[in-house]
Design brief:
Rossmann fold, D-amino Acid Aminotransferase, Chain A, domain 1, five-stranded parallel beta sheet, 419 residues, alpha+beta, Dna Ligase, domain 1, nine-stranded antiparallel beta sheet, 4 domains
Length: 419
């Protein structure tokens, strides 16, 4: 079958890398893709916010299945749009996408179906904010209701800081929403837990731990993610049983009861404390850079799993994983996540000939045969060897060898798991 992956980041390059291995694949497209995906499939230069143009490209290229990478088109209803036109598409509907598109929707779901999560307050005015903030101990977590490209959550160390942040969101700091929720701060260790679901059945497709902070020792500003490793070492059989029973099953059943069954990838961001899981947030797609490490370790045919999800036959599938751990280290433009320069040439890129050693492209572009930086997070060195320490060493060697004056990356990715 002809398949199209929508998106242009490292996540989408990793999805293309994995789907390319499928025996069910005839031809692979990425829309719009990047210079990395161009090496393994055909890029279609289309604006992913223009659903009509996407549809035209699908018809022109005789595409049988569309796989949506990023959250924005999902929240904006691309699955509904293409489904109405009888195009097979993998991902949640617009209504189901509220799990990520609205923090308030997600928290209300947790409350209704008794899914363990942080205590929260929905804030509609500054007056209300002052009353609520006085009742909570610091640090206080302030979240914008809508999508904010990973920048909509602030952990405030003082009550004044919390009020200031709430005020900015209420005034429209983020275009997606001016609604706010305030949460109690959860202590513990964060993990990412991924399932693929057909709306009723689900299969676990990986665990990971990512690193959000720009600086080593998890210091500095939040980013979209500076690296990840898989599997998460803190999820044992006992904890996984609790995650499934207390969080995953009530969510999938709850969404069906609400009349918006969830189909696609469900990514639970969890806080683990005293071997008990609490839900921090849901994402409606693979994480980036978590997807990169998951695609390395998944032994199954991803395309086959996706087709089973669409058909509603996931219960007949089993998922298998490599026992070897995988790590990805993100190389960013110097200055990210604040101001940075684009269009810096990158030389000495490896040819990605080894299956378990890859550099996935994210914020890159090609001009006159040269690869240039074109974003904050630019490249993802992803390696799977027999142990995490060796994998990290190799990933760092790949990045150290790059000739690129503005590169920046953390050397301590995986520090919790590498002693």
């Amino acid at each position: 079958m002809n398949v199209c992956v929508i998106g242009s980041g490292g996540r989408e390059h990793a999805l293309c890398y994995k789907i390319k291995q499928s025996k069910k694949l005839k031809k692979l497209f990425c829309l719009p893709g990047n210079p990395g995906t161009a090496k393994i499939c055909e890029n279609l230069v289309v604006d992913i916010s223009d659903f009509n143009q996407i549809y035209i490209s699908i018809l022109e290229k005789k595409i049988d299945l569309v796989i949506v990478g990023p959250e924005v088109p999902l929240v904006n209803g691309i699955v509904d749009f293409l489904s109405e036109k009888k195009i097979k598409v993998f991902g949640p509907s617009k209504q189901a996408s509220r799990l990520e598109g609205s923090k308030i929707f997600m928290k209300n779901l947790c409350k209704k179906f008794e899914i363990p999560s942080a205590k929260y307050f929905e804030i509609k005015s500054l007056e209300e904010a002052n009353k609520v903030v006085d009742t909570i101990n610091v640090p206080i977590v302030v979240k914008s209701d809508g999508l904010a490209a990973g920048k909509g959550v602030t952990i405030c160390k003082t009550k004044d800081e919390a009020i200031n942040d709430i005020s900015n969101i209420l005034k429209g700091k983020f275009s997606s929403s001016n609604k706010v929720i305030v949460e109690e701060f959860l202590e513990g260790e964060e993990v990412s837990y991924f399932v693929i679901t057909d709306g009723k059945n689900f299969k676990q497709i990986g665990t990971a731990q990512d690193h959000k902070k720009i600086g080593e020792n998890d210091m500095g500003l939040n980013t979209g993610g500076m690296g990840a490793y898989s599997p998460s070492l803190i999820i044992d059989e006992n904890l996984e049983e609790k995650i499934i029973r207390k969080i995953i099953i009530p969510t999938i059943n709850g969404m069906e009861k609400l009349g918006c069954p969830y189909k696609g990838i469900l990514y639970a961001g969890l806080m683990i404390s005293n071997n008990e899981p609490k839900l921090i947030e849901y994402n409606i797609r693979f994480g980036d850079p978590e997807c990169q490490v998951l695609m390395m370790r998944l032994k199954d045919d991803l395309l086959d799993l996706i087709i089973s999800s669409i058909k509603g036959s996931l219960d007949s599938k089993k998922t298998k994983w490599s026992k070897d751990p995988s790590i990805t280290i993100v190389a960013a433009s110097k200055g990210y996540p604040e101001s940075f320069e684009k269009f810096k040439e990158i030389k000495n890129l490896p040819n990605n000939q080894e299956k378990n050693i890859q550099i996935f492209h994210a914020g890159t572009t090609e001009k006159n045969g040269k690869i240039l930086s074109n974003g904050g997070r630019v490249l993802n060195a992803t390696v799977m060897l027999s142990d995490l320490k060796s994998s990290r060493k190799k990933a760092l060697e790949l990045l150290d060898d790059l000739e690129w004056e503005d590169k920046y990356y953390r050397r301590d990715i995986g520090w919790r798991a590498i002693k």
